[in-house]
Design goal:
It is a single chain. This protein is of the alpha/beta class. It contains twelve helices and 17 strands. Helix 10 links the parallel strand 15 and strand 16.
Length: 382
Amino acid sequence: MERQATERGLDAIARHFVAPFHDPRFAAAGWRLVSWDAEQGICLLFEGHAARVLLEFERRNDALECYARTARFNVCARRDAGGGEMTDADRRFVDTVIAIVRKREAALPDRPRPPAERKTMVREVLVERLLMPEGDDRYYINPYVGCMIACPFCYVADRADFSRSLEGLPQLPWGHFLDVKVNAAEVLRREIQAVRQGIVRMSPIVTDPYQSAERHYRITRQCLQVLLETELVPVLLTRAPRILDDLELLTRFRRLLVGFSLPTDADEYRRIFEPHSDPIEERLHALRALHAAGVGTFAVIQPVLPMNADRLVELVAPYVRAVRLDRMYFGDKMLRVYQDNGLAEFATPAYADATLERLATGFRARGVVVDPLDDFTPLLAP
């Protein structure tokens, strides 16, 4: 029997939440709402005369530090990437937004969550929006919501579950739910009529564009086929060698970047920390194949897992233009993973600092840019 795609209730909930900020009467010191998203909590991006400010509304948890709390949310607020510290004017604006949210949050649904009928839930959903603005001709696309690779250190897991709770969906572990945006290409084809240039990230956090479901649904491929008709530049980040299924399509782009997540050189550690991901050697093979085909490539070594840093540099540096490096951010769950596997020595700040320094020195010595990769424009130069 053919499955019927459903309208996603989250979109209507989010529209209610952001409605005041679309009202022409909303104005606070020259700020405007640039973009909003509700797939990992509720995120609002505002732009003022001198900066962009990102507000993230997460499930209330009094044990966590945050900018402010409302009855239902922890509110995190910061200037967007590279923007520095918030100013007093930024904070006054943020306080204005939070005051509006406090008046509206009681109207958000508080739906009971039924027990899960299956261990894994895959929904085929219809969405209203796909191409999400980030300002300065930058956008992102999530072809899916959820990631079957299910890395236990992924910090988006709780945020994604919070969004599911707003819809009253069953609680399932990270990696056991997936929303497939079956009308993504249709929506994107409509949206590109107004947007013909810029950089499009696929996917930033809440999914992997080439996880196992892509081989069946081909949502990422369909979106790339639409982007091929424009001057928009895709930047893809994945852990999955199955991106080579689309190698011919990728080489047809005049400008494009592909990044691989490579947090270690040793598959014995990959099996501990990313048990459902593809082996490191298969990722390296895919990276080499992309490089050989003339595709611009980069690597993300984040978090730095136990590794031979010099060996990882030797394996990766010849095939990438840039790398992003960052440490593991620990919660109790990840500390237990290290301890239970006899790896406590790798869970120290000293290990992280020394490894990050060795990686950075090694990559720079080989002419590879070490960068936060907030701005991909320099990597796209001919």
